[in-house]
Write a structure and sequence with these properties.
single chain; alpha+beta; Aminopeptidase; 5-stranded mixed sheet; 29% helix; globular
Length: 175
């Protein structure tokens, strides 16, 4: 009797690459690749890119992989990266919020948009926003929103976002 072991295989990408817009990909400089975050991106510089945006902290590869698995299991996180020469040079995140409002609609939250400082001026940030909005629309969101610092408003206006409402925040002490 032959014994067959079935193992569950998980995709190596956070979400299906089919959500990547060919138009946005084709608008990138030659050699640049727009794609979903991969489970093995820890060594490709994703945390270094995010550190140019805010505090990252000391994250081990195991912690990175555990967080990747959690985001993948939740199914509402869409972290995209732009890669050049096997290094991540830009990234952004779309988080889907499931609502009761708007007929049980969905809102796309744009988060953590960052382009490596050596790559700025190549319109990579605009391409990230175009891709995020493409995904939000494809996933059935009725709007996408983001919070940003006042000095970033002109950039986001160039990306066809408009100023709406005011953000309020309450930060919690971390013990």
């Amino acid at each position: 009797m032959t014994c067959i072991t079935l193992t569950e295989t998980r995709p190596s990408t956070l979400f299906s690459p089919k959500l990547i817009s060919p138009e946005v990909q084709n608008s990138l400089p030659n050699g640049y690749l727009l794609r979903p975050l991969k489970r093995d991106d820890y060594k490709k510089g994703v945390l270094e890119i995010l550190a140019q945006l805010s505090t990252v902290g000391e994250i081990t590869q195991k912690q990175f992989e555990e967080r990747f698995d959690l985001m993948q299991n939740l199914g509402s996180y869409y972290l995209i990266v732009i890669e050049d020469n096997d290094r991540i040079v830009a990234c952004a995140t779309l988080i889907i919020e499931y609502k009761l409002l708007h007929g049980c609609g969905k809102t796309g939250h744009i988060e953590d948009v960052v382009v490596h400082d050596s790559q700025r001026g190549k319109r990579l940030g605009q391409r990230l926003i175009e891709q995020i909005n493409h995904m939000a629309k494809s996933l059935g969101c009725y709007k996408s929103i983001l919070n940003c610092n006042q000095h970033n408003v002109p950039f986001y206006e160039k990306c066809n976002l408009s100023l709406a409402n005011v953000q309020m925040a309450h930060y919690f002490d971390r013990d």
